[in-house]
Design a protein that fits this description.
Oligomer: single chain
Strand content: 25-35%
Order of helices and strands: EHEEEHEHEEE
Helix content: 25-40%
Mean pLDDT: 83
Low-confidence stretches: 114-121
Radius of gyration: 20 Å
Largest sheet: 4 strands, mixed
Shape: globular
């Protein structure tokens, strides 16, 4: 794996860099072939919380995890555990799909052991569909509407671009905008 490790409001020491690389190298055992894409790691300290975000772009999926804790080393351990759960979950779903279809070789190694993911398995059950008329508005009005209804996101017709956009509240308390290309 190749790494792009950077820090925001934190100096990435050699010890931290080595620890991240050592921990993330544990993930290579799950893949059939070595990962050729660059793994992006961002470490930051915000309001006393040590945050690490890891993004591993693969050919068919992007693995992404973020963890916060009081200690950067603990955050690193937690984020690697989260990535391992994602990989196992994805591997199980892919293997089940390919077994049903034709047994095509997968992205992940099949070590012969049965993989059981009990509490990590999710059923994607749609329980509600909501329809509404998209009123043209600007981004600021959409944020205001989102806050008024108490949601964490809000879909609207952008009056400037004439496209459907989504505004959302970020974990840092700021806002984001999702716009399709």
């Amino acid at each position: 794996m190749r790494y792009n490790i950077r820090g925001q409001h934190i100096l990435v020491t050699d010890a931290l860099r080595d620890y991240v690389e050592k921990k993330l190298n544990r993930l290579e055992k799950y893949f059939e072939e070595p990962i050729t894409s660059e793994t992006n790691v961002t470490m930051s300290v915000t309001k006393g919380k040590h945050v690490i975000e890891v993004m591993i772009p693969l050919s068919s999926v992007i693995l992404r995890a973020e963890e916060k804790s009081e200690d950067m080393y603990a955050s690193i351990d937690l984020v690697v555990d989260k990535l391992e759960r994602q990989i196992r979950k994805h591997k199980t779903k892919l293997n089940n799909k390919f077994r049903r279809e034709s047994g095509i070789r997968t992205l992940f190694k099949d070590d012969g052991a049965a993989v059981r993911v009990l509490d990590e398995e999710e059923e994607y059950e749609l329980v509600r569909t909501k329809r509404f008329l998209l009123k043209p508005m600007d981004v600021e009005e959409a944020i205001l509407q989102m806050n008024m209804v108490g949601h964490s996101f809000f879909m609207f017709a952008n009056s400037e671009t004439k496209e459907v956009n989504v505004v959302y509240k970020r974990s840092d308390g700021k806002y984001g905008l999702i716009a399709a290309d």
